[in-house]
Write a structure and sequence with these properties.
Elements lengths: L5 H4 L3 H11 L4 E6 L4 H12 L3 E7 L1 H10 L8 E4 L3 H13 L5 E4 L4 H8 L13 E7 L7 E4 L9 H17 L6 E5 L10 H14 L7 E6 L1 H5 L1 H7 L11 E3 L3 H13 L4 E7 L5 E2 L7 H20 L6
Parallel strand pairs: 1-2, 1-4, 2-3, 4-11, 6-9, 7-8, 7-9
Antiparallel strand pairs: 5-6, 5-10, 10-11
Length: 319
């Protein structure tokens, strides 16, 4: 008897709630760049079947049709834009969004750098005045709340002003999903300011920036170590008195390396799933890993869809 993967047998109530909330809203046109492997094509089509998105499939037409047939899937009734390769698919998908024919952009089986290069082009991309950043929306079975981790995929070593945008993007996402005012922990190795650890100085400056209105919509605390950010007992033992300590919902990491390791530790040790979304562009971008399962892609679609709808109404989506 084949052994089931852990991800196939555990429950994901947090993701289920997000998807259920999204299903109550109209599906949104979504440009899907290069859906040329099973996970990306099946993820887009199952999200369409669930009523989350209306996919516009952009890639080599013959390859997509052959793949669909080999998987017993149907692409009939969906727009299929024929382009020769992945880079052309990225450029065309961005063009479709710029033309107003899609409200979401979804990564297929191409590399993230290819898609983001098309997104960030000055003349033809989807740039805004805000720094582009990534958020992992994590369903950790052993933790009571959904955790947002940022930035673990786009900004390698952000400076202070880039971190300001990274935090604001994450706060806006949290509020846009109808989750209220987030508690934001700015992580470092320790919970005290130490000139020898630059991330602690950034954390203190970011908290002061929030005090002065340069970051809005969230409660900030930092520096905090990971344990006293999410464990009330650890915060109590350390004597940290803060509404954020022990109850953080957004975890802001010092750099991409720390964030990537944190997210993957939660995925492979705590059996978490990590939906991915890129913020700061004209539209939400569903940016998942080529190794992501269909459930994670569905959750990423739900998050992006809820955010897009909240922007339409200029208010959070409420249950």
């Amino acid at each position: 008897m084949a052994k089931l993967a852990v991800s196939e047998v555990r429950k994901h109530e947090k993701y289920e709630r997000l998807v259920a909330k999204a299903k109550r809203l109209p599906a949104l046109a979504t440009a899907v760049a290069h859906p040329c492997d099973e996970s990306s094509l099946r993820g887009a089509l199952e999200a369409a079947e669930a009523g989350l998105i209306i996919p516009i499939l952009v890639g080599p037409q013959d390859k997509i049709i052959r793949l669909a047939k080999s998987l017993s899937l149907s692409v009939d009734g969906f727009d299929l834009i024929d382009v020769p390769h992945s880079q052309a698919a990225a450029d065309k998908a961005v063009e479709i969004v710029r033309a107003g024919k899609a409200e979401l952009l979804m990564k297929g089986s191409l590399h993230s750098d290819e898609l983001l290069a098309a997104v960030t082009k000055r003349e033809t991309g989807l740039r805004t005045g805000r720094r582009i950043s990534h958020v992992f929306v994590m369903d950790v079975p052993t933790h009571p709340e959904t955790l947002f981790i940022t930035d673990a995929a786009v900004n390698i070593a952000p400076d202070l002003m880039a971190k300001r945008d990274i935090i604001q993007n994450a706060i806006d996402l949290y509020a846009g999903l109808g989750l209220g005012t987030p508690k934001v922990a700015i992580l470092s190795a320790v919970e005290t300011v130490n000139p020898a650890i630059p991330s602690t100085i950034d954390a203190a400056a970011l908290c002061k920036m929030a005090d002065r209105g340069q970051i809005t919509g969230g409660e900030l605390e930092g520096p905090l170590a990971f344990d006293n950010a999410i464990s009330p007992e650890a915060a109590r033992i350390k004597g940290i008195k803060s509404p954020v300590a022990g109850h953080a919902q957004i975890l802001v990491v010092p750099d991409l390396e720390a964030g990537n390791m944190l997210a993957k530790n939660l995925t492979f040790i705590s059996n978490a799933d990590a939906a991915g979304i890129v913020l700061g562009a004209r539209v939400p971008i569903i940016l998942t890993s080529r190794a992501d399962n269909v459930r994670t892609r569905m959750a990423s679609c739900a998050v992006a869809m809820l955010l897009a709808h909240s922007r339409r109404a200029n208010e959070p989506i409420r249950t």
